[in-house]
Amino acid sequence: MPSARQGSIHLFRFSGIDLFLHWSWFLVAAFEIESRKGRYSSVTWNVVEYLALFLIVMLHEFGHALACRQVGGTANQIVLWPLGGVAYVNPPPRPGATLWSIAAGPLVNVVLLPVLAVAFVLSRSLGWAEAMPDLHKLVRAVFMIDVVLLVFNMLPIYPLDGGQILRSLLWFVIGRARSLMVATILGFLGVAGFIGLAFWIHSVWFGAIAVFMLMNCWGGLRHAQALLRFAKLPRREGFACPNCHTAPPLGDFWKCGQCGQLFDTFQTRAVCLHCAAQCATTRCLDCGELHPMNDWIVTALVPANG
Predict the structure, then answer these.
(1) Inter-axis angle of helices 161-174 and 95-125, to 10 degrees?
(2) CA distance linking residue 161 with residue 146, whole number of Å
(3) How far apart (Å, rounded) are the C-alpha atoms in residues 14 and 129?
(4) Radius of gyration of the chain from Cα atoms?
(5) Domain boundaries, given as residue ranges, for the chain
(6) What is the Cα–Cα distance from 239 to 156, expressed in whole angstroms?
(7) pLDDT at residue 3 tops 60
(8) Which residues pair with 77 in a beta bridge?
(9) Distance (Å, rounded) from C-alpha 228 to C-alpha 278?
């Protein structure tokens, strides 16, 4: 996955989210614009069409980022590159929060769809095809760009939005780790299909997409395996998350906000072993919610004497 700090140009910042453009975007843009010569009377229209693609992808990624922030997650960077865009989102580890963070991107395309459809219908009814053919072709092209991006992203293949939405829905039923495992396995099947399609139609782009998906599926599979190992860890008695009622694991899994060192916050009652800093709240590693240490303590019920 591309990094915002390597080979990217910072364009602007909006609502605390930095937008970067990968340098390879310019090479691909030049190639695509050149290959589409002849569709319009001037190459300027080709440039405008490609900029429209840039704008739609950017809005899609901002949909992910802003939705992630809405549910309390972290989303500070977006990178646009030739194969699309990547919003670096880190929603709270809850199925509902993850579902909204992922679904908000395609919902941007859904909102744009009727607007662009109306513009396309009006361009036909007003006779732009004869009076302003370039503008008519541009409106039709932008409408089709939005449709294709929406349909492609909603394919139930990890790591596409459709695959991640499927994973989030499965999370409600079979849990965090197993849902990711199922989604990545289905993703590998999708990768095989994209590879076959790339060879069949001799498409470099589908091959590149297949490689990108393969890398993400492999990373997702390893993450799922790590989550399954985490679920099997021994749990500390006497404590439970007030939100999901899950006992915390035994071990140094919590990072001190002052010195950055890992320690077992329940062993020391939220006092860092390394710098003696007192942590105001403790995060549940299962649901992601923050609670004061006193709220984690499970009070044993003592039977009254008869």
Answers:
(1) 150
(2) 15
(3) 37
(4) 24
(5) 1-154, 156-232, 235-306
(6) 38
(7) no
(8) 18, 88
(9) 31
Distances from the Cα of 286 to the Cα of 137, 272, 293, angstroms? 51, 21, 16
Q: How far is 1 from 104, CA to CA, in rounded Å?
A: 21
Residue 23's H or E segment, with its range, is none
Coil/strand/helix, residue 245? coil
Cis peptide before 159 (omega within 30 of 0): yes
E strands along 16-165, which residues?
17-22, 74-81, 84-90
How many beta carbons lie within 10 A of that of residue 72, not counting itself? 13
296: nearest Cα among 272, 252, 264, 259: 264
Q: Which residue has the tokens 């693609």?
A: 53
CA distances from 104 to 203, 235, 270 (A): 30, 35, 36
| HSE-up (13 A, CA, CB side) for residue 72 | 10
Distance CA 163, CA 106 (A): 12
Lowest mean pLDDT among 36-50, 255-269, 272-286: 36-50
Instruction: Please return the burial class of 1, using the count of CB atoms within 10 Å of its CB with bins 0-12, 13-18 and 19+.
Output: exposed
| Residue 295 confidence (pLDDT) above 80 | yes
What is the pLDDT, as a whole number, of residue 31? 79
Half-sphere exposure of 191 (CA within 13 A, CB side): 18
* pLDDT at res. 305: 52
CA distance 154 to 161: 6
Condensed to tens digits (0 to 9), the pLDDT of residues 174-186 reads: 988 899 999 999 9
- Find the mean pLDDT for residues 215-239: 90
Q: pTM value?
A: 0.80
Q: How many helices (H) and strands (E) does the chain have?
A: 9, 8
Residue 47 half-sphere exposure toward CB, CA atoms < 13 A: 5
